[in-house]
Structures are given as C-alpha cells and as structure tokens.
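Sanity check

After download, print the first record. It should look like this:
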Amino acid sequence: MKKYTYSAKPSDNREQWWLVNAEGAVLGRLASQVAARLRGKHNPAFTPHVDTGDSVIVINAARIKLTGRKLDQKTYYRHSGYMGGLKSTTARKLLEKRPEEVIRNAVKGMLPKNSLGRRLCKKLKVYAGNEHPHSAQQPETMKVTY
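Expected structure tokens:
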C-alpha cells in the first residue's frame, strides 16, 4: 500500500470570506488569528507553499486596543528611498491618521516574506469604520478570541 503526503493545488482552494469586528480587540491577538485564516492554517488541506486561505474583512480598525504603553512607545518606520529619508511615526499618530495601516502592518509581519505573503496580503481588506463594500461576497462573521 502506497503512503503519500497530500499536497494541495491552487485549484483545490474553495475560498470563503470572513468578517472580523476589531472593536475592543487587542492588536496582536487579532492579527495572529487573521494571519492564520489568510494563510489557511484552519484548513485540513493546508500546504505551506500554496495559498489555501480565505479572504478577511476587518471593520472598526479605529477602535483597536494596544496594551501597555505601546501607543506612545511603538514606532513605525518607512523610507522614502532618498538619503536621510527615514521617517518614523508613533502608534498613536498612525491610529489617528490611518488606523487601517496599524492592522495591515501587524498582519503583514506575521505572513511569509516572499511572493506568497504578498499575494496573501491582497486578500486582507481593512476599514476604519463600520461599513465595507464587500456585502456581495456574503462574508461570515469570525469570532476573535482574546
């Protein structure tokens, strides 16, 4: 009798849409569960090098919580590409200006750093408010445990 390991193909993925309400959720705990769902770790046919994950919509990103003194101590860096072009922003300022980026950065840091990770990042939709334009996909609500 032959024994083999099942390896999923991209055509095997039956993609589903999930809706996550980030109101009152802790940033890291929410991001780890969203990253696992994007990656497909909940799927029995999970294969590390294939996209077996689902699409995730995160709403109420402006109402996320950061524990401790992270609002003032956590810094986000970006570089313009020019000499001396390193810019830094605290988490408090980024939450005021673009709260979607806080969640997007946290989830992106938990995904693979290759072309698969970049493809998975495109399946994450983050919105600061309560509304989203993806109602046609009929997303199921995902309960975040924290």
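If your output differs, re-run the checksum step. Summary of this record's structure: The mean pLDDT is 95.
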